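User: Fold this one for me? It's PAS domain S-box protein.
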Amino acid sequence: MTGFQKSEQKGHDSRYSILFDSAIDAIVSLDGNFRVILANPATENAFGYPSSELIGNSIEHLFSLRIKKRFYRILKNIAELPDKKRQKPFGPIRMIRKDNTVLISEISVSVTGSREDCQYHVVIRNISEKHRIIMELKRANENLRRMDREKEELLEKLEEKVRQRSRLLAGYYKGIKEELNLAKKLQTEILPDIPSISGIQIHSAYLPMMEVGGDLYDLFQIRPGVLRVFLADATGHGIQAALLTMTLKGILESIKKKRYGSGNDSHGIQSGILQKFRKHRNVLLLFSCGHRYDFQKNRVRFRRSSYPIFSFQGSCIGVG
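Assistant: Here's what I get for PAS domain S-box protein.
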């Protein structure tokens, strides 16, 4: 080797020594028998062993038994490769510090020299923090998946409950619909038959807003040629109004049998309503009107009245 070559080699070794000593990753060089021949300061910082305790010894104590066998197998495989340049890092690997704490690391290996006289250069990077973050992300991802599964299960249970409630409500609705249809039939049946009067044509139609309603009409002959028409409308729609008008129909039928046409018809209807709804706590508004057609004398009498019924201290007051 010439003087220039020696100088060049010395400069190269000097630069390598600077990089070797200043590297933040632990670097350990091993001989063919896997014994330490070099260890940089970062190795001591990472594992707590001074270089004097590492050089000349193996690094088996840095690995668990399972990892140790795998590590040596990797070194031998790399030494037999045609291209002995630095290989792709492998890890994470759990390594053991001098104080028996665990260092999560990533290792890359390169080989120099011939197969008979090779050296292994091991770069050990501390990835404990990176590994911790990755594990936390994995746990968070698992928790999200678990929550997603729980959400799906909850949604399935809710959907099943909704289906059950829907079937239950459908059954209730069907029953209510059948009862309303029956109520409609009954209310239609209480409507009067159209009387036959010579020379007069009478037509009627009953079309409540709902299945049943609060409207009522009645017409009948007091005597031949004299027709009485009664119209009533209870406040509201539906069942409540229908019940009121059906009650009114009963009162009207009672008065018709006793004294209809005596001149006290309105008073009798009012008295009947007040008596029937004496304990009712709400205000019921009822409008009614009566027409009396005398086709023999060509006269019409018209009477109307309204009944707001108030419940006050157990007594009812009718205003009309």
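One thing worth pointing out: The chain has a mean pLDDT of 77.
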